Amino acid sequence: MKSIYLTCSSTNIPYTKQGISCEINGQYADALDYFSKGLDAWKLGKFESADSIKMESELWKAEKLECLRKMGNWSLLKI
Hints:
The chain is an all-alpha fold. The protein is built from four helices and no strands. It has helices at about 1-10, 15-25, 30-45, 50-70.
């Protein structure tokens, strides 16, 4: 599902694409960092269109929680 999002998404926001790419590859800490940076930038008003970025911010929040959940599951972690 996430790889489909990467293929079909029209977003030009690197936080989303990089975060999902890392998550797909099992790099949950890196993905968490991208999603956190996206949320920080959004909170600081660094995006031109606040309305369109609102949906991205919801995705970042959800994916941050998913990364944290996966990082707590030792059997899913890749070394």
